[in-house]
Design a protein that fits this description.
Helix content is 26%, strand content 33%. The protein contains ten helices and 18 strands. The protein has helices spanning 66-87, 98-109, 114-124, 133-145, 176-186, 198-212, 308-314, 317-328, 350-356, 370-373; strands at 7-16, 50-52, 94-96, 159-169, 189-193, 230-244, 254-259, 265-277, 279-281, 285-293, 297-304, 332-339, 341-348, 382-391, 396-407, 414-419, 424-430, 435-442. The strands form two sheets. Strands 1, 2, 3, 4, 5, 6, 9, 10, 11, 13, 14, 15, 17 and 18 form a 14-stranded mixed beta sheet that branches. Strands 7-8-12-16 form a four-stranded mixed beta sheet, with no helix packed on it.
Length: 445
């Protein structure tokens, strides 16, 4: 039996520049991306980087209230749905990693003060005054990356890795408390670089990201994003690899008709299988949850039967939480047909995040990240996000990378036939906390 494989790679870049007055990105247009180069061919001088760390060692096994960890997961999911509602007017398919963006912004918020911190806390749905907030993020990361003890020894292992790093301008002052917070809770080692040579620094960061994502993301930061004004880059990389518990046989994949948003149809290859699955069928929706072997992750697909645009416009975090919970408690024999598809999104998120309620972070006159440097001399100038996904019979491999660039300023009781042949929303989530790691929609396979 072939191993499962879905390729999923995500990039998010946040640039914080001193003295810049407005965000430089356009949220409706993709940022320029160069053709990726082989990391092994990059010309990088070893002397351009110095590894260091905060004074506090990374907390490997954080102690935290499980209910507080679950509440943080719900905050992530609320942020995921808020982003979805802000992005749904984009044309075509959509894919992004709310978990990667949420974590990168929470790392950034560790250095925010005053109104800037209050606004970021409101958008993320967290209490930044809670001294445990970053420990809770560490605990949630730990929950999502630890294989459950109850699994059988011969179970197919599921891999979900998270890596963070802080790239700081050498000879520039950063507050030790800020660096310690990132080191202790995010395992974000400090790497000193010289942004006066921005292309060298860019090559170093991109090489690190490529290594953390199994070469799925080779050009996280495009040419021209870094400059001599850059002071810090915070990077987050996520790598996921697992196998479907229920295998699709390639020989059963047949062409079929998929109905597009405008009512027209196109022929696409549909995977097919008969499985016992969490499934829900009503007059309004059909939904299934496809579990991954050897872990507590699943992909849920939700297909409204009538007006897709109306359904997604009305979808809330509470609705999705309830739907995922209902799926977890349901089982049915399902004759399932699901399209193979590929999708890619490149998004500018700066203006969207400002509109969601954190405008001061992007305002040179109002941004206050003095928790990073001791003075309010940094601001966010752009937030860029890229994501791709490839779904086929062979399984799931997923990668995500996030960089924040700092510069100046039960038994089955039902039997269903479910054919995902209309636009649908999908999420990849951890089933014990319902944490949404990836989210998207497929309207045109």
């Amino acid at each position: 039996m072939k191993p499962n494989k879905i390729v999923f790679s995500i990039v998010m870049i946040s640039a914080l520049m001193l003295g810049a007055c407005v965000p430089v990105q356009n949220p409706t247009e993709p940022y320029p991306v160069e053709e990726p180069e082989d990391p092994s061919n990059a010309e990088v001088e070893p002397g351009n980087i110095t590894d260091s760390s905060g004074d506090v060692a990374y907390i490997i096994d954080p102690e935290a209230d499980p209910e507080a960890v679950r509440q943080l997961a719900q905050s992530n999911n609320g942020f995921a749905l808020a982003l979805y509602q802000a992005l749904r007017d984009e044309d075509g398919n959509l894919i992004y990693s709310p978990y990667s963006i949420f974590q990168a912004l929470l790392m950034t918020a560790a250095g925010a003060e005053g109104a800037t911190a209050s606004q970021m806390a409101s958008v993320l749905g967290v209490d930044l005054d809670d001294p445990e907030i970053h420990n809770l993020m560490n605990a949630l990361n730990n929950a999502l990356t630890t294989q459950p003890e109850y699994l059988e020894s011969d179970a197919q292992p599921l891999t979900f890795n998270i890596a963070n790093a802080v790239w700081a301008q050498k000879d520039y002052h950063f507050e030790q408390a800020f660096l310690d917070t990132l080191s202790a809770n995010y395992n974000a080692g400090l790497k000193l670089v010289d942004f006066n040579n921005p292309e060298d620094a860019r090559a170093l960061i991109n090489l690190w990201v490529a290594a953390q994502t199994n070469d799925k993301i080779k050009d996280l930061i495009p040419e021209g994003v870094l400059s001599a004004m850059t002071r810090m880059v915070l990077t987050n990389a996520i790598y996921f690899k697992g196998a479907w518990s229920n295998q699709f046989e390639e020989k059963d994949t047949k062409d079929g008709s998929f109905t597009l948003l405008d009512g027209s149809s196109k022929t696409v290859p549909f995977m097919h299988g008969n499985f016992t699955l969490p499934a829900l069928v009503s007059e309004k929706i059909q939904a299934i949850s496809l579990p991954y072997e050897g872990g507590t992750y699943a992909m849920a697909a939700i297909m409204p039967l009538e007006n897709f645009a109306e359904f997604e416009a009305q979808l809330t975090a509470a609705d999705l939480e309830q739907l995922l919970s209902n799926l977890q408690s349901s089982r049915a024999m399902v004759d399932l047909s699901m399209p193979k598809f590929q999708s890619e999104s490149r998004l500018g998120l700066g203006e969207i995040l400002a509109a969601l309620g954190m405008p001061d972070a992007f305002d040179a006159q109002k941004a206050d990240f003095s928790g990073m440097t001791g003075k309010p001399d940094l601001m966010i100038s752009s937030v860029l996000h890229q994501a791709t996904i490839d779904v086929n019979e062979e399984g799931t491999e997923a990668a995500a990378a996030t960089a924040v660039v700092m510069g100046v300023t039960s038994m089955p009781g039902q039997s269903y036939t479910i054919r995902l042949d209309k636009p649908f929303i999908y999420v990849i989530y951890e089933t014990t906390t319902n944490t949404i790691v990836f989210m998207g929609r497929m309207v045109n396979p």
